[in-house]
Amino acid sequence: MTQPNYSEEARMLVAVDCTIFGFDEEELKLLLVKRSFEPEKDKWSLMGGFLRDQETSDEAAERVLHDLTGLQQVFMEQVHTFTKPERDPGERTVSIAYYALINIKDHDTELSEQHDAQWFSLKDLPPLIFDHSQMVHKAILKLRQKTSTQPVGRELLPQKFTMRQLQRLYEAIYDEEFDKRNFTKRITLTNILKKLDEKDMSSSRKGAYLYEFDLEKDGHAHSYSFNV
Amino acid sequence: MTQPNYSEEARMLVAVDCTIFGFDEEELKLLLVKRSFEPEKDKWSLMGGFLRDQETSDEAAERVLHDLTGLQQVFMEQVHTFTKPERDPGERTVSIAYYALINIKDHDTELSEQHDAQWFSLKDLPPLIFDHSQMVHKAILKLRQKTSTQPVGRELLPQKFTMRQLQRLYEAIYDEEFDKRNFTKRITLTNILKKLDEKDMSSSRKGAYLYEFDLEKDGHAHSYSFNV
DNA sequence: TCAAAAGTGTTCACCGTACACCCATGG
DNA sequence: CCATGGGTGTACGGTGAACACTTTTGA
Fold first, then answer.
1. Which pLDDT band holds residue B6 (cuts at 50, 70, 90)?
2. How far is CA A2 from the centre of its chain?
3. Which partner for B129 in A12, A226, B40, B170 could form a disulfide, CB atoms 3.0-4.6 Å apart?
4. How many whole angstroms separate alpha carbon A26 and alpha carbon B116?
5. pTM value > 0.90
6. pLDDT digit string, tens, across residues A147-205
7. Chain B residue with minimal CA distance to A37?
8. For residue A151, how many other CB atoms are within 10 A of its CB?
9. Nearest by CB: B51 against A41, A56, A83
């Protein structure tokens, strides 16, 4: 059977949907948008968009994120592709789910207001359209997995941060509490942080040392693993 | 901006491509097909097919695998979605890559001959069309990851097998050799195997005990982890 | 009797975990 | 002077890794 082309096959819409993670010193949050068009207008959803003719899905995901936050060069990773025929009642649409890690203070709030976007605590999400809750769930699993092999603080924290902030971030990601002595030890072991002389005085009388990710060492072959 | 529908967006072909793993007591193999149509006719490729109107990608992957091997109820998992606009020169096609684990002796050889399919050692693959080599690469990584949290022997080995066969399988997956004492210990620890009274006499004078996966224990909460 | 594969245990180093007290400072 | 959060070390158990000799039996 030799076919000259694929003309009898079904064409369909392909979308990307982004689970956008941020961290506010307390808990993990997601940036959700109020959908501005039918179907499911005015319901909360992940930010998404359709794949264009000459675009990879990575590019589409970046574009979608940029439109909402003004940010570029953001860490994003593909999570899973969702294909149930009836998942979008408007028209058959296959959606490639992504997640993004952003510093919650960096994004352009005007842009996100234009999109009726809002940060929600991961622990208190509104109902989401279609299969977006499943996307969020898979995104968290993927984020945990990434966290277990690579540090994620650079993407989610300010440039300088305290050990406690980093710990709270990891606790939020794993939804689990850690002992601070063991946490400090494990992180120090990986050798990815540079301890600064500066202290952050905002959170306690004593003050907490600030750290930065050590760019010198980054890219070199130092092993990292954070098993919970 | 309220849109009544998505009419201005691009529709495209969506395909699934399957990396089919088998094990022949020695090495991991892939079942590849000689492509029967243009573009790239007569080149080696993963078995694939287009997503139909009322089909999930999981169903499409099963259908494609069934067409080639006659097998059903095979373990399959989604790997990654490939979206480069020019990846298929015939027409814009997004492809959802899957991998499958099959017992190399189970499949319908007539069917696979009809498709000009052939088993290739993972270590000696022919050039593959499009981005299929990348798909294979990601599939192996995913398989390793699965192997580290769940036993994969049930899918790839005959029902009864020796400890040595299981070890060779794991060595093939990780492309790494293990100490047989440590291997036996680690696997025994997980408690997933039942040692039979029978021996396999084909591989040595002494004979090797046969094992089965212990269905009693399966599904119960026994932890499994195989870290290399 | 010998060749070929199978089976089996111990030791050691490292890592993860549990756990409690003192420190610095602003109010 | 005291309340609040920050910082630090040790002891123990479990796990992964290294390692070598004996057993069986068909030829």
1. confident
2. 44
3. B40
4. 58
5. yes
6. 999 999 999 999 999 999 999 999 999 999 999 999 999 999 999 999 999 999 999 99
7. B2
8. 21
9. A83
Cis peptide bond N-terminal to A126, omega within 30: no
Residues 6+ apart with CB under 8 A from A137: none
Tokens found for residue A51: 């794949």
Q: Which residue has the tokens 């050798």?
A: A191
Among the partner-chain residues B50, B81, B96, the one whose CB lies closest to the CB of A6 is B50
Q: What is the mean pLDDT of residues B193-211?
A: 95
Q: Which residues contact A213 (CB under 8 A, 6 or more apart)?
A: A151, A153, A154, A192, A193, A194
Give the tens place of pLDDT for each residue, B146-199.
999 999 999 999 999 999 999 999 999 999 999 999 999 999 999 999 999 999
Chain A interface, Cβ < 8 Å to B: 1-6, 9-14, 36-38, 41, 50-58, 78, 80-81, 83-85, 90-94, 96
> What is the rounded distance in angstroms from the CA atom of residue A197 to the CA atom of residue A211?
9
Contact call for B10 and A37, based on CB within 8 A: no
Distance (Å, whole) CA B92 – CA B50 = 12
Q: Give the closest nucleotide to A186 (alpha carbon vs C1').
A: C16
